[in-house]
Design a protein that fits this description.
The protein is α/β, with parallel strands linked by helices. The chain is 49% helix and 15% strand. Helix 11 packs across helix 12 (276-295) and helix 21 crosses helix 23.
Length: 519
C-alpha cells in the first residue's frame, strides 16, 4: 500500500509543485514537493509500492508481463493522486527508472508499455546521474556525520546491480570506482546454491571474491579513517543496526548478519517492517557491506538513518541543476586522472582555460549547452595523457586511456565524447571509419566535431607548452575568425601551429582562423 507523508496544512498552488517518479529495483515511488525560494524542496506527498523489477531482471534477464502490468497499475494510481492536486498526470517533472533496467532484454518493450498506458516517457538513470545522486546524498545529508569530518572517508553505495565508492579527503572527492556487484544481482546469482544460514554467507563471499580483491587493490595506498555506507536495504534497517547513533561496529554488523541469515523472508518482513522484495536482498546487502569493511580493515561503519527512497526522489529534482561545486569535482577527478598518467598539468590547464574563452565567446556559433563546456574542459585537461604510453600517436593512446577510465560525474556517453574530442586534438579529424565515433548518434557526432574544432584552435595557441598566450581577443567577419593576442610580440609559432590545426574549425564552422600579434 502507498505510504504517504503527513500532508501539509494547505496544498500549495500547482505552479509551485514538482513531481519525481522512480521505477526502482524493488519498488515504484513518487514524491510531490513544493519548491522553496532558496531552491530546496519540501515534501507534500510520498508514495511507494513494492515491485520485483530487479528479481525479474537478474533471474530471467527480462521483466515479466505480470511485473510490467503491476508497474503500470501503480503509476496510474499515482497519476490519479497528483491529478487531484491540480497537476497534469502526464507531465511529471522527473520520471526515471533504475539503471539496471538496461540489462533487461525487453527494456524497450517495458518502456513503451508505460508510455502507451500512462502517457509517460521514462528515462533510465545512467552512471553519470547515479554518481550525482550519491554526491548529493553525501554532501547534503552526510556532512553532519563525524566520519565526514575526518581526513579520509570512503562513501560506499551498494546498489541493486553495482557498487560505487567515492573517496573523500578533507571533504573533496579524490577517487571514484565502481564494481559489478550488487544486492539483487548477488541474490539471484547465489540462489541456485540452495545454501542456508552461515553457508549462504560463505557463498556470497565467494561470489564477491574478485570484486573484493579489486577494492583491496584500489584502496591499498590510502588509510581510510571512516566508512559511510548508503543503500536502500541498509538504510531500511539503519535504526536497528545503529540504535539511532548512525554508527555500527563491525562486530555488531557481523553478529547482526549472522542472526539475520537464519531468519526466513517472512520473519525479516515482520521484524524490520520490510516489503518482501527488500527482505529478499537484505542478506546480500549486509554481507557485501560487511565483507568490504573487513577487506579494508574498518572497525565501524556510519549508516545514515534518513529515508533512502524519499531522499533519492528529492535529489532527482535537483541533480540536473548541479553546477559550481559539482563541476569542480568533475574537473578535480580529471586532474587526478591526468596526474596518474603524468600529463603536463600546466599545459592541460592552460588549454582548458583557452577552450573556455573560445566556448563562451562563440556561444551563438556552436549553440552547445553548458554541459558540453564542462566536457570540453575535461578533454583539454586529458588530451595528452596518451604520452604516458608513447609520444608517437599519443592522441590515439589518449582516446584508449580515457575510454577505459572513470571520471566522476560523467556517464559512458560523456566519457566517450571526451575521449574522442581528446583524440581529435591533432592529426585526423572525425571520420566514420573510427569505430567509437561511428557508433555515436548523428547529434553526438556533431557535438564531438564542434568541441574538437575548438580544442584544436586552443591547443594551437599553446603549442610551446609555455603558456605564452594568456589573453585573446576574438572578432568575426564573414568567412573569418580573427584572433588577436595582446602581449605577444611574435606569434610565428602559434600561427604555424594554427595552420595545421584550424582545418577542422573551418570545416565545421565555415570560418578561416587568422592570428594577429599585438601591434
Amino acid at each position: 500500500m502507498p505510504l504517504p507523508c503527513k500532508p501539509a496544512k494547505s496544498i500549495p498552488s500547482a505552479e509551485n509543485l514538482f513531481t519525481a517518479l522512480h521505477i526502482g529495483a524493488s519498488s515504484v515511488s513518487m514524491l510531490v514537493a513544493e519548491r522553496q525560494d532558496d531552491g530546496s524542496f519540501t515534501p507534500i506527498d510520498f508514495l511507494e509500492q513494492a515491485t520485483p523489477v530487479a528479481r525479474d531482471i537478474f533471474r530471467s534477464g527480462m521483466i515479466s508481463p505480470t511485473t510490467t502490468e503491476r508497474v503500470v497499475e501503480i503509476i496510474k494510481g499515482y497519476q490519479k493522486s497528483i491529478s487531484e492536486l491540480g497537476l497534469d498526470p502526464h507531465t511529471i517533472t522527473r520520471a526515471v527508472a533504475t539503471n539496471i533496467l538496461s540489462e533487461a532484454t525487453n527494456h524497450e518493450t517495458f518502456m513503451n508499455r508505460i508510455r502507451i498506458a500512462c502517457g509517460l516517457r521514462i528515462s533510465t538513470i545512467d552512471d553519470g546521474e547515479m554518481t550525482r545522486l550519491i554526491y548529493l546524498k553525501t554532501r547534503r545529508r552526510l556532512l553532519n556525520l563525524p566520519a565526514m569530518r575526518k581526513d579520509t572517508t570512503l562513501v560506499l553505495h551498494v546498489g541493486p546491480g553495482n557498487t560505487r565508492a567515492l573517496l573523500f579527503k578533507n571533504g573533496l572527492i579524490t577517487r571514484y570506482t565502481s564494481y559489478r556487484m550488487g544486492t539483487h544481482r548477488t541474490r539471484e546469482a547465489v540462489d541456485g546454491s540452495h545454501a542456508e544460514g552461515s553457508a549462504m554467507l560463505r557463498v556470497i563471499r565467494e561470489h564477491a571474491y574478485g570484486n573484493l580483491a579489486q577494492i583491496r587493490f584500489d584502496y591499498s595506498d590510502v588509510k581510510i579513517d571512516g566508512l559511510v555506507v548508503i543503500g536502500y536495504e541498509l538504510q531500511s534497517i539503519a535504526a536497528a543496526l545503529t540504535q539511532s547513533s548512525q554508527v555500527c561496529s563491525i562486530k555488531r554488523l557481523r553478529q547482526f548478519t549472522t542472526d539475520a541469515v537464519n531468519l526466513s523472508d517472512t520473519e525479516l518482513v515482520k521484524r524490520f517492517q520490510l516489503d518482501y522484495q527488500t527482505a529478499d536482498a537484505l542478506i546480500p546487502a549486509l554481507e557485501i557491506n560487511l565483507a568490504i569493511a573487513e577487506t579494508l580493515k574498518i572497525r565501524e561503519v556510519h549508516i545514515p538513518t534518513s529515508e533512502y527512497e524519499q531522499g533519492l526522489l528529492n535529489d532527482l529534482l535537483v541533480s540536473h541543476e548541479l553546477t559550481g561545486a559539482f563541476a569542480e569535482e568533475v574537473l578535480r577527478s580529471s586532474r587526478i586522472l591526468a596526474e596518474r598518467y603524468q600529463s603536463d598539468p600546466g599545459h592541460g590547464e592552460h588549454v582548458s582555460n583557452l577552450c573556455t574563452k573560445f566556448f563562451d565567446a562563440l556561444t551563438d556559433l556552436h549553440q552547445l549547452p553548458p554541459h558540453d563546456a564542462l566536457l570540453l574542459q575535461v578533454a583539454a585537461i586529458l588530451h595528452e595523457v596518451g604520452t604516458y604510453v608513447s609520444p608517437r600517436a599519443h592522441h590515439k593512446h589518449s582516446e584508449y586511456i580515457i575510454l577505459n577510465s572513470e571520471v566522476f560525474g560523467l556517464d559512458r556517453l560523456d566519457v566517450t565524447i571526451v575521449a574522442l574530442v581528446a583524440r581529435y586534438h591533432r592529426h585526423s579529424g572525425p571520420r566514420l571509419d573510427h569505430p567509437s565515433y561511428a557508433a555515436l548518434k548523428t547529434d553526438d557526432r556533431i557535438r564531438v566535431s564542434k568541441l574538437a574544432a575548438i580544442l584544436r584552435v586552443a591547443d594551437a595557441l599553446e603549442r610551446t607548452h609555455a603558456q605564452r598566450v594568456s589573453n585573446i581577443e576574438i572578432h568575426r567577419e564573414p568567412g573569418k575568425l580573427h584572433i588577436r593576442l595582446p602581449g605577444l610580440a611574435d606569434a610565428a609559432v602559434e600561427r604555424l601551429a594554427m595552420a595545421a590545426k584550424a582545418d577542422l574549425f573551418e570545416q565545421v564552422f565555415g570560418l578561416t582562423v587568422m592570428i594577429a600579434e599585438n601591434n
